[in-house]
Amino acid sequence: MEVYPLLFKPILKDRIWGGTKLKTKLNKEIPTQTTGESWEISTVPGDISVVANGIYKSTNLNELIEKYPEEILGKKIHKEFGLDFPLLFKFLDAKDDLSIQLHPNDELAKKRHNSFGKTEMWYVMQADENAKLIVGFKQKSSPEEYLKHLNNKTLVSILDEIPVKKGDVFFLETGTIHAIGAGVVIAEIQQTSDITYRIYDFDRKDINGNTRELHVDLALEAINYEVIESKKEYSEIPNKSNLAVKCPYFTTNVIPLNGKYNKIKNDDAFVVYMCTEGEFSIQYHHHKFDFQKGDTILLPSILTEFQLIGEANLLEITIE
């Protein structure tokens, strides 16, 4: 395999709540004024990422993994997931509030949808003044209380609204009710799954006067009614991998890059870098690749020694 950092063509999604910040903040060539999501690396059926650079340009990620499974995924990941790429990476621009929703766990998702569950995390890249997220219940709830408030359109009153700022990190286990509020740009890392149970959409209608589908019955069994501490604190030591989230599905570090960071790793798993600020390069064996804010880079697992050089803020994601 020809080894180099892989960039992919963004898969851009129009959303009722989307805006234009994916272009103005992250240099994405958005097709509409309501572009809400840029899927950066995906193998969700129907949305398979295509390589945008180098010798494998125009090859899709599934084809590449089929040809070079251990080289890309890593020995451990290939053994565990076969030819499946287990994570999905996105940038989101919420001009308006997203629906209140949740995701099922692996067991429910497998039984109902033959899919992975959807554990995910958010890194706040930009937040307007007074921007908020909804994450979980204020106090321990129950199916009965939840349904009463849902039917009375007072659900938000029992949910935890959290003010947010740039750099905040949230870890969302499956079953956690959540919503991204208006005025927030987020980097999202999650299991490869597109299963969402939407439970309340503020009675919004699309341009055709239709409301979006809700999944109230499916959600009942999937909701975690406990109070959850979802916000994660982390260090910001320059030129170091600072742990932000560690779970069975992914580990995410924050790297405030200010100069040079030498990286040596094993070949068990791939690494992904999401550049949330600044510019940087990846260098190895006299090769140099330049990247900027808004880029999401997949480093094949067999690239085990390299340097990160520049002035940037990076999310470093792998599976341990």
Automatic annotation (TrEMBL):
Any signal peptide, and if so, which residues? none
Domain (Mannose-6-phosphate isomerase cupin) spans 245-315
Instruction: Kindly state which keywords UniProt assigns to this record, in alphabetical order.
Output: Isomerase, Metal-binding, Zinc
Q: How is the cofactor bound?
A: Binds 1 zinc ion per subunit.
Task: Tell me the active site.
Answer: 198
Q: Which Gene3D superfamilies match?
A: Jelly Rolls (2.60.120.10)
Q: Does the keyword Metal-binding apply?
A: yes
Q: Which cofactor does it need?
A: Zn(2+)
Residues annotated as binding Zn(2+) are 103, 120, 178
Q: Show where the Phosphomannose isomerase type I catalytic domain sits.
A: 9-115
Family annotation (PANTHER family):
FRUCTOKINASE, TRANSCRIPTIONAL REPRESSOR MPRA
The protein in question is named Phosphohexomutase
UniProt source species:
Flavobacterium terrae
